[in-house]
């Protein structure tokens, strides 16, 4: 049989494309798969010698198009059902910091320990006991022989002075910029 001419195909597309896409979508459940099935149907119509041709067989052409579209849609659905979607990894922070964060933390800690040398001995002692050993004011007071009020005052003034030293230190310029936001 002769291949259909372009005007016949254009008329068939205009008349049947939307109904075929709706029908194929009712089978596949996806618009893109339905469009692929209909495209395959029309390609097969152009290539296939078994496709009905001629002026008096419009009902045969319609039935053929819907039959082929149905089969193609089922094929697309089967193909897609065999594909097992892989879950994407969740974008959540890791429970432990990565190597870069650990290295930065060690560098920061070392720099802060160096800056502690700019404080008085009592300020250094109470800050270390509080933050390195997680002791309470009462426990620090017992260890140092200072009153709890004096421990609080030394922590306050020592941290304030340490903050000023950090701001003045060039090594902390980019660190403070990243962590102050």
Write out key terms for the chains shown:
Rna Polymerase Sigma Factor, Chain: A; rod-shaped; 8 helices; mainly alpha; Arc Repressor Mutant, subunit A; 2 domains
Protein model, in words:
This protein is mainly alpha-helical. It folds into 2 domains: 6-82, Rna Polymerase Sigma Factor, Chain: A (Orthogonal Bundle), CATH 1.10.1740; 113-179, Winged helix-like DNA-binding domain superfamily/Winged helix DNA-binding domain (Arc Repressor Mutant, subunit A, Orthogonal Bundle), CATH 1.10.10.10. The protein has 8 helices and no strands. α5 packs across α7 (148-168). The radius of gyration is 38 Å and the shape is rod-shaped.
SSE topology sketch:
Elements: H1 6-28, H2 31-47, H3 58-82, H4 99-115, H5 121-131, H6 137-144, H7 148-168, H8 173-179
| Structural Rg | 38 Å
Output mean pLDDT. 82
Count of DSSP H/I helices:
8
Order of helical and strand elements: HHHHHHHH
Shape: rod-shaped
Which structural class do you get from the secondary structure elements?
mainly alpha
* CATH T-level fold name of the largest domain: Rna Polymerase Sigma Factor, Chain: A
- The termini sit apart by 74 Å
Strand content: under 5%
The parts where pLDDT drops under 50 for at least 5 residues are none
Number of domains: 2
CATH architecture of the largest domain: Orthogonal Bundle
Characterize the biggest β-sheet. Answer: none
The protein's oligomeric status is single chain
Tally the beta strands.
0
CATH class value of the largest domain: Mainly Alpha
Quick description:
This protein is mostly helical and 181 residues long.
């Amino acid at each position: 049989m002769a291949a259909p001419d372009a005007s016949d195909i254009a008329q068939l597309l205009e008349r049947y494309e939307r109904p075929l896409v709706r029908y194929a979508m009712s089978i596949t459940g996806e618009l893109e798969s339905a469009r692929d099935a209909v495209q395959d149907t029309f390609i097969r119509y152009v290539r296939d010698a078994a496709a009905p041709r001629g002026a008096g067989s419009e009902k045969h052409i319609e039935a053929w198009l819907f039959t082929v579209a149905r089969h193609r849609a089922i094929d697309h659905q089967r193909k897609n059902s065999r594909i097992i979607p892989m879950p994407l990894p969740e974008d959540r922070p890791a429970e432990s910091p990565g190597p870069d964060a650990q290295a930065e933390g060690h560098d920061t800690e070392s720099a802060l320990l160096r800056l502690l040398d700019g404080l008085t001995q009592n300020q250094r002692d109470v800050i270390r006991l509080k933050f390195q050993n997680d002791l309470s004011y009462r426990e620090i007071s017992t260890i140092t022989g200072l009153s709890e009020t004096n421990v609080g005052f030394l922590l306050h003034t020592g941290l304030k002075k340490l903050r000023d030293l950090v701001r003045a230190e060039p090594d902390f310029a980019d660190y403070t910029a990243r962590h102050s936001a």
